[in-house]
Each structure stands twice: as structure tokens, then as C-alpha cells.
Design brief:
Blueprint: E1 3-8, E2 12-13, E3 16-17, E4 20-21, H1 24-27, E5 37-42, E6 48-49, H2 51-66, E7 70-74, H3 84-91, H4 96-101, E8 115-118, H5 121-134, H6 140-160, E9 169-176, E10 181-187, H7 193-200, H8 203-210
Parallel strand pairs: 1-5, 2-6, 5-7
Antiparallel strand pairs: 3-4, 8-9, 9-10
């Protein structure tokens, strides 16, 4: 393992820019073919970030480790600065290596910006309970709708997002109590719903299901 590579987050790491959502430019930073290298992920230059976009680096780092890379992260001083470094700690993402190695562990983020690895029904229930805690003051119909959406996404990532290499799915919440707003992302490195169903059923049955 002689190759050394530094992956530096840009100053701004957000899905939304100038009122438009741009996923492609962020995802282009991830090189999924890297193997057997020493990797440094540099968060120190990123001062404007989105929690959901930032959480994707957890999946990427797990992927790099599976590809036999030695990965370390470089941060700035989180005590007096805002930005990606402080947000990473607030999500509890610094515990990602222990969580990848121990299925009984999970992230220990702050109440309003937590991150969850979703690997089993226990993780599913814990993540859904967290969402319900945020919506206690919401209109009851809105609360039911949001719960249904999150439950469906979590179910899909458990059922179809399974990764043969043992990389868990993720859900990350950002709860803004004063605004009464919640944003979240569900992400995985699985093969996807369509391919998973195709593997589970013969082609003729799959065609009927997908139609």
C-alpha cells in the first residue's frame, strides 16, 4: 500500500445551490474504483455543508475500507469554527469505524442532527422512533404521512439496499425545531430495488411486478 491520496472537500458541500438541487456534481467527487491506497479525507477546507450531503462520506469511507484502503480524516479545530468538521462530530460520524466493525454499535450524534446505521429491525425501530419524537407537535395527518414515508424508505433500504460486502444503510436527520422543519436522507450502496427483485423472481414474474 504505497499510494497516497488526499480527497479534499470543497468550500461548499451542499445538494442545493442557487435554488437548484445538484446531486451529480457532488457525487462526482467519489471515486469508487480506488483500492489499496492510503486515503486522507480533508474536511478542513469545507465551511458550508449540508448534513445529508455530508453523511454520504460515511458510506464512501466504509466502501474504501472494504477495498483495502487505509482511511483517515483531517479536520480543523471544531471548538471555534463552523463547517464540515464540526458537523461531522455533531452527527456522531467519528464513530463510523466501530460501527462498521460491530453490528451492535450505532452513531451517537446530537438530538437534532443524528445519524443511524440501518442494518436490522432494531435499527429500523430506533430511527423511526427518532422521527416520531420530532413530529409530536405536528398536525396529526401530517405526522402520519411523514411516518409512513420514512417507514417505507427504511423498509426499502432494509429489503433492497442490502450490500453483499456488509456495508450498512444510513438515515440522517436534521431537525430545526424553531422552524418546525425536518430534513433527512436515506442512503445505501445496495444493488437497488429493480435488480434485487429481478434476482428474487423469474423474468416473467419480475416483468409483471415491475409493470
Amino acid at each position: 500500500m504505497n499510494n497516497n491520496r488526499i480527497i479534499t472537500l470543497p468550500k461548499s458541500w451542499k445538494f442545493k445551490s442557487h435554488e437548484y438541487y445538484d446531486f451529480d456534481s457532488l457525487l462526482q467527487l467519489f471515486d469508487w474504483k480506488i483500492r489499496n491506497e492510503n486515503i486522507t479525507i480533508d474536511f478542513s477546507q469545507c465551511f458550508e455543508a449540508n448534513y445529508q450531503a455530508l453523511s454520504l462520506f460515511v458510506l464512501y469511507i466504509w466502501h474504501l475500507r472494504i477495498n483495502h484502503c487505509f482511511v483517515k480524516c483531517h479536520f480543523n479545530d471544531i471548538s471555534d469554527k463552523q463547517g464540515a468538521s464540526k458537523m461531522w462530530v455533531k452527527m456522531g460520524a467519528q464513530g463510523l469505524f466501530n460501527i462498521q466493525d460491530d453490528s451492535n454499535e450505532n452513531f451517537r450524534g446530537s438530538y437534532d442532527k443524528p445519524l443511524f446505521a440501518v442494518r436490522n429491525n432494531r435499527d429500523f425501530s430506533n430511527a423511526l422512533e427518532k422521527a416520531e419524537n420530532y413530529t409530536e407537535s405536528f398536525d396529526i395527518e401530517y405526522e402520519k404521512t411523514l411516518r409512513y414515508i420514512i417507514a417505507e424508505l427504511l423498509y426499502n433500504t432494509l429489503e433492497h439496499g442490502r450490500n453483499s460486502r456488509g456495508i450498512p444503510s444510513l438515515i440522517q436527520f436534521a431537525w430545526y425545531q424553531r422552524k418546525g422543519e425536518i430534513s433527512f436522507i436515506v442512503a445505501d450502496l445496495g444493488i437497488g430495488i429493480k435488480r434485487h427483485i429481478r434476482q428474487a423472481y423469474p423474468d416473467n414474474v419480475f416483468y409483471c411486478l415491475w409493470q
